[in-house]
Task: structure prediction
Amino acid sequence: VRPDRIRPKGGVVISVSDVGEFGAIARVVARLGQGRGVLVGPGDDAAVVAVPDGRVVASTDLLVEGRHFRRDWSSAYDVGRKAAAQNLADISAMGANPVGLLVGLACPADLPVEWLEELADGLRDECDLVGAAVVGGDLSAGDCVVVAVTALGELAGRAPVTRAGARPGDLVVVAGGLGLAAAGLDLLLAGHSEQPLADAHRRPAVAYQDAMRLAVDYAATSMIDVSDGLVADLGHVAAASGVRIELTASDLPVDPRLEAAAQLLGTDPRSWVAGGGDDHAFAATVPPGSSPPYPVVGRVLAGGPGVVFSDAQPPGAAGHQHFRS
Amino acid sequence: VRPDRIRPKGGVVISVSDVGEFGAIARVVARLGQGRGVLVGPGDDAAVVAVPDGRVVASTDLLVEGRHFRRDWSSAYDVGRKAAAQNLADISAMGANPVGLLVGLACPADLPVEWLEELADGLRDECDLVGAAVVGGDLSAGDCVVVAVTALGELAGRAPVTRAGARPGDLVVVAGGLGLAAAGLDLLLAGHSEQPLADAHRRPAVAYQDAMRLAVDYAATSMIDVSDGLVADLGHVAAASGVRIELTASDLPVDPRLEAAAQLLGTDPRSWVAGGGDDHAFAATVPPGSSPPYPVVGRVLAGGPGVVFSDAQPPGAAGHQHFRS
Result:
């Protein structure tokens, strides 16, 4: 709970419809921070942001209530942190510096306006981690809460790190937590809402600086934000690069908290590590001579695209796809 | 009905869940066109788009089913056109050239995948009008259809035309249709779905080139995309510029189709012209010496911000605000 948030007096909940569209937008904008390079910020038809080398990096992701979060499990602040994080991570995975977010929000008219203010706090604080800021947005009535975030970034003259650059001989490394958010979700689903890993579902801790180091200092040939699961996302890299990726299950980093959660739920922690998304770890390929300080979990081989294991593939490694149960 | 769309064989409807997230995305991407300056297009963590002068113009708007469109009134193609148009218009209103769109889409699992393909056709065709292209997006399950579009643009070295530049003495001009979409919606609500103006609700015809002429050739000091209604949106200009705007109701352009619709519904057509949004006309202020070939509807005065009429204010001129009935 943040001390600076506005609490309604006498227990009266002020809804979005009480203050109206423009009143709600004014309250949200009042919570936002200033970003570097923002030439025109919120309040005009469009924002204008500096991207000095003449290229903008841009990505959109949605958070949908009931699919990506539940309001009884996650605070608005958590949803804001997560909505910003998953989009900023996409920019970092290109080796770019995030500079701005645009936030489209649909919500029911009876949503407490305080929920929007705390969402804005979460967006702002996650942006602060990388020096970015919310530069614009849109607010609309809707039957469910949908947070549609677009992140903008700039490359500072560097080439983007795409999914298509992995070459046979490269090493596969991962930076950031793997499987924590998926384990947290399973803990929440099983009723263990007080387990520390539940927070990893609510609010991923993204290793933005490590993505930048992989791109700039360790010459990553490809990189991806792990959102669907390590195996699924490396499958995208293998397909885009036209290579085979061989992982070694015994080299996958298993956080001690995953071991504890797996014991509680009677499952294999490597299922979460190989198949769980939503931590927004970074999986990268680096040239054989590069030695980044991150776990090496596999290597790039020539041959048909796909992900294989040099040892036993963990169960449930295929990862998540929307519209599939 | 477009001849090139894929029809399911034997009347079987193929749903989004039948083809899955990645299958649906592949079908959508196959319908999209190529844009100029797209360095990395759909399929990576983020897109990379050229904005040669080092500034990106960006705006986000949502279309929510049941609020902005109804699937029984509008085809998916119409929704795609409208979703693109309302965002491209925001870029044009800054005097910028639109270059790319990112599209976040939430939809129920049982939505026919053909609906997504036709939506993509609509997005593509509207982008084609201005030389832009869809460069990325996201697809998620959700209980209602939400189309969250972010448009990107570039200024070609010019200053952005904001809402804040109107000066006393400037003339107020409007380019594009006014009140047509609002009249179309009222016709649809009254059951007149075959009236030609109903199409103005389904799919606005945006005067993109006129916005550019106002910015480049006629030195517009301020400009806004009319989405909430002329009076409401000029109120935003007056507030941002710290000026008063005086309109003359008898100078407002009234399309002959509005006269006919007003007779049918027994109302005053100027209500739609002054208060109706969603046509995405452009309202601009130009210096007194500038003579653009568009209707002059008022002038800029010194004094407290606000919009006044030099003659009788049309009824219902206040315009639309979300969450207010």
